[in-house]
């Protein structure tokens, strides 16, 4: 059976990743969404869902664990 770990990323209206798993990202300016996804993909994360809203966009990522 496969096991996964997950990340939930909160993206603001300007396309900046502001939170990952409810922890504020301390870098200012924040990383742009596409930069974050490129780096996460290189670390084995895959985007599995995007949930838009009026203020935020949530990105759900997962990667397989051992």
Uncertain segments? none
Structural class designation: alpha+beta
Taking the sheet with the most strands, its summary is: 5 strands, antiparallel
Classify the beta-strand content into a percent band.
Answer: over 45%
Could you spell the SSE succession in H and E letters?
EEEHEE
Mean pLDDT: 91
How would you concisely characterize the structure shown here?
The chain has 66 residues and is of the alpha+beta class. The protein contains 1 helix and 5 strands.
Helix and strand arrangement:
Layout: E1 3-11, E2 17-20, E3 23-24, H1 33-42, E4 46-52, E5 57-65
Antiparallel strand pairs: 1-2, 1-5, 2-3, 4-5
Describe the overall structure.
The termini are close together. The chain is globular. The protein is an alpha+beta fold and 66 residues long. The longest helix is centred in the middle third of the chain and has 10 residues, at 33-42. The mean pLDDT is 91. It has a domain at 1-43. A five-stranded antiparallel β-sheet has the order 3-2-1-5-4, with helices on one face. It contains one helix and five strands, in the order E-E-E-H-E-E.
What keyword list fits this structure?
globular; 1 helix; single chain; 66 residues; five-stranded antiparallel beta sheet; alpha+beta
């Amino acid at each position: 059976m496969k096991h996964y770990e997950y990340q939930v990323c909160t993206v603001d209206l300007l396309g900046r990743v502001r939170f990952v798993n409810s922890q504020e990202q301390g870098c200012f300016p924040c990383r742009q969404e596409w930069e974050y996804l490129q780096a996460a993909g290189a670390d084995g994360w895959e985007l599995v869902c995007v949930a838009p809203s009026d203020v935020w966009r949530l990105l759900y990522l997962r990667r397989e664990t051992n």
